[in-house]
Amino acid sequence: MNYRRLLKYSVASIVLACAAPQAWAQGKQVTITHSSATNSHWGVAALEFEKVVEALSKNKYNVVVQRLDNEREAVESVQLGSQECALGSTGPVGNFVPDIRVLDVPFLFRDYAHARGVLDSEVGDKLLEKFKARGMIGMVWMENGFRHLTTGKKEVQSPSDVRGMKIRTMENQVHMEAWKAAGVLPTPMAFSELPSALQQGTVDGQENPIPVILAGNFDQLQKYLYLTSHVYSPGVLVCGLDFWNGLSAEDKKIFQDAAKASVKANRSRVEEDERSGVQELRRRGMEVREVTNREAYQEAMKTAVANFEKQFGADVLKTLREWRPK
Ligand code: EAX
């Protein structure tokens, strides 16, 4: 392009820029990441957060939703302030806020009502408070769902069959300990590394909730799905403390309202996936095995539970297990 044409184009772009000021008048950018497809229990939650923040703030904020499959990195960058917020499973979050690890104990919650009840009670509120000391605001509890085991080639009939198997776990000490007690070789890795590990057969299996298996198309990577429901996998929406402290009281309320709306979207999508997901995975060709011997899995993880009782307090675990709504 010669000089004259370049000049013409530059002038034209300046004129355009002046004629379309709205394109430059975007709000303050707030980035939130999540680790799944847009059409998933995380994706819809992030979109809801975006929608509500932008509507309530009248576009003072421009929420940018991005996908970041490495949930540990997401939390790290929230902590460092290089992104404002993140939502996702608590898988790696216990490495940042150790108090929340208690929620990762297998066979702690009976069902969704139980887990949500605890998270929405003062127990959950107190745990969210713990994020502050780690440079984050725990905005709201979300959920990933009850986790189920899947395997590739080898079929598992009972928990004794998992002995010696390499099972990918989240980077979560509690989960690793539990699987180790069951005789598994727990192979912790970030979610972002999981698909290739399954493809290459570096691990024999993995475990995740139905919404994650569905959205991640794990039916293409794993043959068997066992409905073990061995552990509830909570989620959390976190924002950086510095970002938060820079907000006015009015804007904090907007973000809190958006976070609450986001939980609703997340939970109702989990419910929907729980209703139709297993059937859909069967349709896609997965061999689904109902698990009638869940207690056997619990039994297999028992030596770890004794350890958890020491670590978190037997009384604390008992209170959580026996929790009933007031
Ligand atoms: O949040 O790492 C995991 O297995 C998580 O369940 C997944 O990232 C979805």
UniProtKB/TrEMBL annotation:
Q: Is DNA repair tagged as a keyword?
A: no
Q: Name one GO biological process term.
A: transmembrane transport
Q: Which InterPro entries match?
A: DctP_fam, TRAP_DctP, TRAP_DctP_sf
Signal sequence span is 1-25
From which domain of life does this come? Bacteria
What GO molecular-function term can you cite, just one? Answer: carbohydrate binding
One Pfam family of this chain:
DctP
Q: Name one GO cellular component term.
A: outer membrane-bounded periplasmic space
* UniProt keywords, alphabetically: Signal
Q: Which PANTHER family match?
A: DICARBOXYLATE-BINDING PERIPLASMIC PROTEIN (PTHR33376:SF2), PTHR33376
- Supply the name of the protein: TRAP transporter substrate-binding protein DctP
Organism annotation? Microvirga aerilata
- Gene name tied to this protein: dctP
